[in-house]
């Protein structure tokens, strides 16, 4: 019995390693793909700027069992990658692996955290891109593995065009439908609907963008299958978003289009600060504020 | 007994009228004072713009007992006053008088709302000013009367300089200390400390600005005295803020100072969307989104 438990623990540890190593690999692949777009730019209003590169900043929490101001114990760390460029006005790609003990108040809200005595582990990749061109959609992608007394995957990606374009929307949804269908015929409908419900601003009665997919608490009992799906979501994003960017990044835009973009970005801020669970989770467990708020747009207007 | 109850009700109705009429009067006085500042501008970077005037937009909720999406019944209305000018880049002065029934979830959080079966009435004035000049502090002021099975006043004012200036801070606090002292010798310390605790961004470990006063649930048993204090808070604001604006509105500012202002405004957005109870209260009871979010700055950067 003790041996079985030990094997379980070591299997879980191995899986945690596998997942967090993957998030790092995916980060590297995405950063390379985005830097390639910076190099490729040949038109639009910013082609005379230099192609940018990501800057990486690692961070670590103090290795202490003292609860922080939020009442949680949070250890581990991560790496922020940020690029301010001529295609990507501001894009943040963060990876992190954190662990510790949730405050009691917080543990009540997380599956399996009561039974783990609040003990948790979480690893993931999180990305938000705000583009120079108002003709290129903003985008968000995130995948993660979380472990308490249970463990599961969550994630998704959603597209936020300033001027919705049917081709872009079709390409994005088409890619994620194909991805979902490779794993489970019911995933696309379920995870698309979840995305539509989740990325919605009730106070504006508006969706955040044109959707995508969103899923959480994915634990079918087959860890390898759930991980394979989560990997595929990341790879699908890595391949389809650059295609969408290429489609319009070289077009000129007008001052009016830029103004519209700055105002639409306000909705992104409202969503992230009022509703986004990742932001709330991060800020309320004493996470890294700079990394969490890297999602906020570089310039915004509420005229 | 029935007569006594009727007299109680009619006295409360009279008080509601008195309070909401005052908020309107104060709104008129403040708008006039702010328009005078627009006229007086003679220097700085925007003196060649035209002096602006407030635009007023009344709004009304549907007169229905159907709960809105938030589960609350909300009737009544208000008036937004907004000015986009050469001194005031964007200032909103809102008054509203709303009533109805809170959703059960919300009623649990409001004093006396359980005993009233969720029935409430609320009237107030709320103001946020974002200035053209980074040398002139932004400001917030709000006072309100709320009635459930209890009734009370709340409000306050706080100053958010981009470049804190000792003279400005002293003038602001000095005026509110004198105001408080006219009513109760313990108010200034209590309401200043409340303000410092309340207008604080835990995720940044930063105060929002240089403080001021904040109070809520004020019900000493002497309605006239509580109302007189609330009126004085409004009048004190009306008199001291224009003085502070005059002190630096005619000075030139640099591009660097403007950049700093746009970044500091980001903190204002973070506070309002993450923590401000008025914003949360408004959005979660299905209030008027345009009026509530008028507090957001016209232009912001998170570089």
How would you describe this protein?
The structure is a homodimer of 303-residue chains. Chain A contains eight helices and ten strands. Chain A is of the alpha+beta class. Chain A has one domain: oxygen-dependent coproporphyrinogen oxidase, CATH 3.40.1500.10. In chain A, the strands form two sheets. In chain A, strands 1-2-3-4-5-6-9 form a seven-stranded antiparallel β-sheet. In chain A, strands 7-8 form a two-stranded antiparallel ribbon. In chain A, helix 3 packs antiparallel against helix 5. The first copy, chain A, is globular. The N and C termini of chain A lie far apart (65 Å). Chains A and B meet through helix 6 and strand 10 of A and helix 6 and strand 10 of B.
CATH architectural category of chain A: 3-Layer(aba) Sandwich
Number of domains of chain A: 1
Helix fraction of chain A by DSSP (H/I, runs of at least 4): 40-55%
Which spans of chain A have pLDDT < 50 for at least 5 consecutive residues? Answer: none
Helical stretch count of chain A?
8
Major sheet of chain A: size, sense and barrel closure? 7 strands, antiparallel
Largest sheet strand order of chain A: 1-2-3-4-5-6-9
Strand content of chain A: 25-35%
In CATH's first tier, which class of chain A applies? Alpha Beta
Write the CATH homologous superfamily of chain A.
Answer: Coproporphyrinogen III oxidase, aerobic
Q: Please name the two chains that share the biggest interface, counting residues whose Cβ lies under 8 Å from a Cβ on the partner chain.
A: A-B, 25 and 25 residues
Class based on secondary structure composition and strand pairing of chain A: alpha+beta
The average pLDDT value of chain A, as a whole number, equals 94
Silhouette of chain A: globular
Radius of gyration of chain A, in Å, reads 19 Å
Number of strands of chain A: 10
Q: N-to-C terminal Cα separation of chain A, in Å? A: 65 Å
